[in-house]
């Protein structure tokens, strides 16, 4: 999706994707409702012990589908392009497992 609008299937299939380490879990910083944020994040190694995000996190993430080929995640991405205003857009990720040996 781009800004909450579904991209054409052909565009998705032509996209080379981004390789990183996927993590799904609670972010300790909560919301105004004093609840943790459940999020998916895609990371890359940065130096020897640090990591940096490759994509904006997906908040309130849900796993919609899990198959041997991958998993479909849906959540909300925060868009700060019009700072100080911000917007949330629906976003989906198709995550595909890779073999570390073939990725090297």
* Proportion in β-strands: over 45%
Q: What is the terminal-to-terminal distance? A: 29 Å
What series of H and E elements makes up the topology?
Answer: HEEEEEEH
Number of distinct beta strands: 6
Number of helices: 2
- Summed over residues and divided by their number, the pLDDT gives a mean of 83
| Shape category | globular
Number of domains: 1
Assembly state (oligomeric) = single chain
Supply Rg.
15 Å
Secondary-structure-based class equals: mainly beta
Main β-sheet: number of strands, strand sense, barrel status?
6 strands, antiparallel
Please estimate the helix content: under 10%
* Low-confidence residue ranges: none
């Amino acid at each position: 999706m781009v800004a909450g609008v579904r991209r054409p299937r052909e565009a998705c299939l032509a996209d080379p994707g981004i390789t990183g380490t996927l993590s799904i879990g609670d972010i300790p910083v909560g919301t105004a409702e004093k609840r943790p944020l459940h999020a998916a994040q895609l990371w890359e190694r940065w130096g020897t012990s640090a990591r940096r995000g490759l994509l904006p996190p997906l908040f309130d993430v849900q796993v919609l589908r899990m198959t041997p080929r991958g998993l479909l995640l849906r959540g909300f991405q925060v868009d700060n392009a019009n700072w100080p205003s911000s917007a949330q857009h629906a976003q989906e990720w198709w995550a595909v497992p890779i073999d570390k040996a073939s990725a090297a």
